[in-house]
Structure formats: C-alpha cells, structure tokens
Amino acid sequence: MSRPLTLKSLGIPRSIWARLFISVALLEVFAIVCIQGYVIKRTVDIYKNGVESQWGFGVLTGSTKMSITQESFIVYDVIFIVAQLFLLMLCWEAVAHKNTIQIIAATLFNVMCLIYSLIQYTTFYIRPSSSAGIFQKDNDMRILQITTMVVYSLCTVAFAMLTWELYQLFGWKTYKKLGANLALRRAYKWHQILLTLLKLDIFFFISYSVQLATLVLRVSDPETWVQIGVVIPGSVVFLVLSFWALKVEKRRVMIVVIICLGLSPAYFIYKLVRMNVGIDKNNDPYLDSRKYLTFFIVVTLALILVTVYVSIRCYRNFGIGLKEAIADYDARKAQLKANIALMNSGNADQATAENRNYEYTEVNERFVLE
Q1: Which whole number is the average pLDDT over 291-304?
Q2: What is the C-alpha separation between 124 and 51, in angstroms, rounded?
Q3: How many CB atoms within 10 Å of residue 20?
Q4: Global pTM?
Q5: What angle in degrees, to the nearest 10, is found between the helix axes of 16-47 and 100-121?
C-alpha cells in the first residue's frame, strides 16, 4: 500500500522555519509563473500581426533583416519561469538535506533573479531598446514588470531572514552527525560548496547558450547548430562528469575538470569583447540582447572562477576519508531506519512519531554544515 504524500515524505523537516522557507519559494514560483505567463500572452497578442521571423514568430526589420521582438521577449520570460523552477529545486533540496551552503546559495540566486528583472524593466522603460519601444504606452505591461520586481524584492527579504534562522537551526547538527573531526568538517564544507556551484554553473551556462543561439545567431549560421547540438549537451555532460569525479574522488578526471574550467574564461571574455567592440550600429546582432547576455556572461564568468578555486580545494582533500565517512553515515542511517521500521511492522511514519530522538525523510539526508 502506497504511503500518502506528505511534507515529511518529501523530505521537509518539521521545523516551522524550514516549512516557511519552502512556502515562500512555492508562493514566489506561483506568482512569477502567473505573471510571466500573462506577459507571454500579451506579447503574442501585440505582435500577432507582425511578419514572421526566422524561428517562426516575431518581427523582422527591413534594414537589418534580423528578428528583434517577440521571440526575444518570450525567451526572457521563459528564462524567468525556468529560473523559478530551478530555485524551487534548490530550496527543496537544501532544506531536505539541511544544507546551509545551498540555502545561502538559493537566497543569492533569488537576488540574481531580482537583478535580471531590473535589467528587463530598464530595457522596457528607462532606456528602451528599439524593439521594446512598442511597450512604452502599454500600462499593463509596465504594471506586470513592476509587480515582478516587487515580488522578487519581498521574497529576497523573506529568504534572507529565514536563511539566518535555518543557519542557527541546522548548524549544531553538524557536530551531532559528523562528530568533532575538524578536518572532515572543513573538507565537507568545500565539498558542498562545489556541488552547489556546479548546479549554478549548469543553469547559467545553459541559459546563456540558449539566449545566444535563439536571439543572436541565425538559423543558417553553422555556429547556431554547433551551440545547440554540441556545446549545450556537451557542457551538461562535462558538468555531470564533474559531479561524478567529486563524489568518487577521481583525481585524474578532476584535474581535467579543473583545466577545462580554467580555460573557459577566455571564451567568455572573447564573447564579452565581441559584443561591445567593433559593432556596426546599422547591423548590430546584439542590439536587444546585449544587456541580458552581458549579465549572464559576467555571472557565469564569476561562478567559473570561484568553481576553479573550490575545485582545487576539494582536489587537495581527496583521500582524507571524506568519501568513506559519507558512505558510512548513509549506511548507518539506512540501517537505523530499517530497524525502527521493522519494530513497528514496517510503518516508518509511525516509527518516526514514536521515536522523537530521530527524524526520518525519504530524501537521503547527509551531513549538515555549520
């Protein structure tokens, strides 16, 4: 018989602060998805009579023969929606694993979403691009953009307050679960930081690549299909390989990861220079996407540099016993849970209720960082 879906079965602790953290994330996801969904509908309505662009919708200009409107704004709105789903994943996983590093990262990610919404509002109304001028007299769109910024601002404040409470709540559990071995605790801290950075790297690099391929490059340009068919999936495979190398402590693979990450800033610096130097104003492929791409390039570049540094720290910690400690903790926890469940006729929920010294989740709860 299947067990009912509850917060506990989803890995959410009983703490009121943890559940408030998830509640704020859910409310933000609902609000932003609804707002951006309506923005997409309104954009489509405004441009439904436009000339079709290279991707099947949007408007082409007679002078540059480039797509500059509907598809651009829809891609930005879709990024908002995907970012919210990614944020919800970060929040749920962080709370379920009692991972204070990722809780802080989720709060910072929400700040980045707020900055992105400010860039969008600037592009629409403060320093509008040529293609955004059509929205100047659309008060509904202005209200939606302001509402998006207000939602992000309020949720950022809420996340910051709850992050502090969760840090205080989860910090002591490090000693209880990992013990007083300071070397392992420091190693695990860097381990968790790297895992979180790799998740952020995946999101920002894929978002940048999708914008570059759909908004700047042409369908007839081979670079477009190289970006979509090779660069994006190749980057995902590379970062997944990085997760694996960190988990199993493969030194040679980790060295390759560090070298490749260390070389990648050259590409982003090249793209940043190319977007801003020597551009023909009458044929500017970055006219409407420059601000957005610059934001993603700068953030991705910063993340990569930090990731390289943290990867080196983690590499130096290989072989000190962290991998074995994680495996031992997982094994002990699984055995303890099985024993308690067996004593209660296989009902793990009842066992949890009757044994308040332990807290069980369906998620594989590991160490908790101070």
Answers
A1: 90
A2: 21
A3: 15
A4: 0.79
A5: 30
